């Protein structure tokens, strides 16, 4: 079971841009919680504590226990608006979670043992992570904070596809239901010189064209 993460908020009556600006000047964050069988509700959170929480991966991918005026409800962060250049959170959107209804959420990928793999130990081999997160579908109780990919056996020229991920019980990847063409590469290991060799023919093809242009000028 995932670790419980609790954040605190209070309800607010005032809405609109003016009210939001006043909240931010008072070091609070305007936010909204919606979904489920209840009406959307405007709330506010303390900026400093929320900012610290936002530095953690779980803040974006875990079910959160939102303590709203002493009443706890399960929510997911669905949107975060930040100031363009200041370390300020401008607004947050939370969605209520029904514990008996499947949800979709993006979960980060953790790559393990890459440096111990045959590909990782070989000079000149580049291991690229094509994806850093995946969308999963599951019941709230089964939502993982992250999914691990053990690369200890990754070979030179090896590819790890989406279908090869080891998922926790009760967790699915909706993307795979869309067809084989959606079984994309997650990790690729290849020699760095392959990219240079692929670009070389294009450069060579440009030379004859340049020579022809010079002859025409004469």
Number of separate strands: 12
Q: Estimate percent helicity.
A: 10-25%
Q: Give me the Rg, rounded.
A: 24 Å
Assess the beta-strand content as a share of residues.
Answer: 35-45%
- Chain oligomer state: single chain
Explain what this protein looks like in three dimensions.
- It is a single chain.
- This protein has a 6-stranded mixed β-barrel with strand order 1-3-2-6-5-4. It has a 3-stranded mixed beta sheet with strand order 9-7-10, with no helix packed on it.
- It starts with a strand and ends with a helix.
- The protein is an alpha+beta fold and 218 residues long.
- The model is unreliable at 209-218 (pLDDT under 50).
- The protein is elongated.
- It is built from 5 helices and 12 strands.
- Helix content is 23%, strand content 37%.
- The chain has helices at residues 17-25, 47-54, 58-61, 118-121, 193-217, and strands at 5-11, 28-34, 41-46, 64-68, 71-82, 89-96, 103-112, 125-129, 133-138, 147-150, 159-161, 185-191.
Keywords:
218 residues, alpha+beta, 12 strands, disordered C terminus
Please outline the helices and strands:
Elements lengths: L4 E7 L5 H9 L2 E7 L6 E6 H8 L3 H4 L2 E5 L2 E12 L6 E8 L6 E10 L5 H4 L3 E5 L3 E6 L8 E4 L8 E3 L23 E7 L1 H25 L1
Parallel strand pairs: 1-4, 2-6, 7-10
Antiparallel strand pairs: 1-3, 2-3, 4-5, 5-6, 7-9, 8-12, 11-12
């Amino acid at each position: 079971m995932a670790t419980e993460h609790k954040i605190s908020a209070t309800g607010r009556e005032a809405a609109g841009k003016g009210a939001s600006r006043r909240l931010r000047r008072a070091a609070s964050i305007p936010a909204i919680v919606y979904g489920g069988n209840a009406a959307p509700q405007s709330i506010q959170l303390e900026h400093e504590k929320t900012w610290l929480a936002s530095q953690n991966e779980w803040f974006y991918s875990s079910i959160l226990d939102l303590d709203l005026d002493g009443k706890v409800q399960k929510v997911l962060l669905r949107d975060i608006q930040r100031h363009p250049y200041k370390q300020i959170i401008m607004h947050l959107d939370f969605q209520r979670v029904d514990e008996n209804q499947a949800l979709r959420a993006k979960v980060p990928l953790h790559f393990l043992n890459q440096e111990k793999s045959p590909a990782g130990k070989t000079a000149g081999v580049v291991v690229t992570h094509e994806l850093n997160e995946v969308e999963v579908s599951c019941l709230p109780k089964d939502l993982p904070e992250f999914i691990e990919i053990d690369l200890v056996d990754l070979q030179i020229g090896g590819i790890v596809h989406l279908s090869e991920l080891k998922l926790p019980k009760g967790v699915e990847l909706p993307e795979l239901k869309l067809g084989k063409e959606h079984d994309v590469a997650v990790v690729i290991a290849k020699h760095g010189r392959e990219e240079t060799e692929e670009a070389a023919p294009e450069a060579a093809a440009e030379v004859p064209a340049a020579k022809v242009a010079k002859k025409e000028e004469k």
